[in-house]
Design goal:
Layout lengths: L5 E4 L8 E7 L3 H8 E3 L11 E6 L5 E10 L10 E7 L2 H13 L3 E2 L4 H8 L5 H12 L3 H11 L2 H25 L10 H30 L1 E7 L5 H9 L17 E7 L2 E7 L10 H16 L2 E7 L6 H9 L5 E6 L9 H7 L4 E4 L8 H13 L12 H22 L4 H19 L5 H8 L7
Helix pairs in contact: 4-5, 6-7, 6-14, 7-13, 13-14
């Protein structure tokens, strides 16, 4: 499908033990052999590493390397491919790359090796996206989720549901095209039962994929509250380091401060904000309050912090009620000081909210707080069976579930099976887009453009 040969450094830039420069395309072997001299006279053999020296334009030795060739289709890209293993260090690898490009290759685009693997049928789109997630994984759990998808678990699960929808669609069409005395080929009750099974299968898969999204992208947590409630102290306690300035003066935090910690393999993206109040004293504080409100809207979870050592302010209760439709927790801070508010009394005032009494200063119940944060977003989803999935794939699954639900409603309303057939087709197309079956060049460019050069 691709007529040219590409080259790029596939290892990280900088000093290291080795650096790998990769060639892929129809002329990969020829270009590589022009730039190296093998240590023995035997020709290159696929999948066998050979000692060689890398030569410059004048035939002088630049580096002692290993040459590892692959023949199509048995390579990462499905094309002829050669890896040149140089000594680590930016200069040797860069000179190797320059020689390959001057020898007829061109510089690879970001993600082009994986794009070629996809185009040549070595990976489907879900597996290709898992490659990117594997590279960007920040925890062991995220790494395992990416590998499960790369091994084809998502592909197989989507494929099984797709095949069932295809079979259903075919049976519906038979009934529509060849009716016998107005009796459908598949009875409405049987069709509804099978669609319900499909919907449940999609819901189960969505739960696994949603867990994978959390493992990869993390949970954005906005720490909000009135001035001097101990928000910055809570951030520092969770991080176990001083990221935010803490003083007894209300309004110390004027801007948004972000930091990341990993708990149970999930990145918690903590956002410390300025105290929210209507009685700000200057323009800078007003801007800080505005940004705090924006952080609340962008967060996956809001943590409203209340100072338990002071009498309860009605403003705190009002703000918590405003968060009723947003995943949130209420933290009663400063439990190490004499308390003016008890956890029980506050829970009675805001029964729809989870209240946790903590001490940022003493580190009390912080693990319980982190567990609650994870539970709010992940629900009952099993993180140890999560599949790496992008937000795009999750939305396609939701679209498929919605289409099946629309079909079930049409059956329940006694409507014609032709409408159900259209819904089944819509669900199939959603699943096909997960695997890259429906080609969209703009989408493919967006996905592979996020990769690094060399992958």
């Amino acid at each position: 499908m691709f007529g040219d040969t590409i080259a790029a450094i596939s290892t990280a830039w900088g000093n290291s033990g080795i650096a790998i420069v990769r060639l892929s395309g129809p002329d990969a072997w020829a270009i590589a052999q022009r730039q190296v001299r093998l240590q023995t006279g035997a020709p290159l053999k696929p999948r066998f590493a050979r000692n060689a020296v890398l030569l410059d334009e004048a035939g002088e030795v630049i580096d002692h390397i290993l040459v590892l060739p692959f023949r199509a289709p048995h390579s990462y890209t499905g094309e002829d491919l050669v890896e040149l293993h140089c000594h680590g260090g930016s200069l040797a690898a860069q000179r190797c790359l320059e020689l390959l490009i001057s020898g007829g290759a061109r510089m690879a685009l970001p993600g082009e090796y994986t794009r070629r693997a996809f185009e040549n049928g070595r990976l489907d789109l879900s597996q290709a996206e898992a490659v990117g997630a594997l590279i960007q994984a920040r925890s062991n759990e995220a790494l395992r989720a990416a590998n499960r998808t790369l091994d084809g678990e998502l592909t197989r699960a989507v494929g099984e549901i797709y095949e069932e929808l295809t079979a259903l669609g075919a049976e519906i069409e038979v009934g529509l095209d060849f009716p016998e005395e107005d009796v459908p080929y598949i009875a409405d009750e049987s069709l509804a039962d099978r669609l319900e099974v499909v919907r449940q299968s999609l819901a189960d898969l969505l739960e696994r994929c949603s867990s994978g999204v959390i493992l990869r992208e993390g949970i954005r947590v906005a720490i909000v509250g009135r001035p001097n409630a101990g928000k910055s102290s809570l951030l520092n306690a969770l991080l176990k380091e001083s990221r935010a300035i803490v003083t007894a003066i209300p309004g110390t935090t004027r801007d948004v401060i972000e930091a990341v910690l990993t708990y149970r393999g999930i990145p918690l993206r903590l956002v410390d904000t300025a105290g929210i109040t209507e009685n700000y004293h200057d323009e800078v504080e007003a801007i800080g309050v505005e940004r705090a409100r924006a952080a609340m809207k962008e967060a996956d979870v809001c943590v409203w912090v209340i100072d338990g050592s002071e009498p309860l302010h009605q403003e705190d209760v009002d703000r918590v009620h405003e968060l009723a439709d947003t995943p949130h927790l209420v933290v009663l801070n400063k439990a190490d000081l004499p308390q003016q508010i008890s956890e029980a009394s506050l829970t009675a005032l805001i029964p729809a909210s989870t209240v946790i009494s903590v001490s940022a200063a003493e580190g009390l119940r912080l693990d319980e707080l982190k567990e609650s944060l994870v539970g709010l977003v992940s629900g009952t989803g099993a993180l140890d069976t999560g599949l790496n999935a992008s937000s795009r794939q999750v939305e396609e699954l939701r679209g498929a579930i919605a289409s099946v639900g629309t079909g079930l409603k049409a059956l329940g309303d006694g409507l014609d099976q032709a409408l159900v057939s259209g819904c089944v087709g819509d669900a199939r197309r959603s699943l096909s887009r997960i695997l890259g079956g429906d080609r969209d060049e703009d989408l493919l460019h967006e996905i592979f453009g996020r990769f690094c050069i060399g992958k």
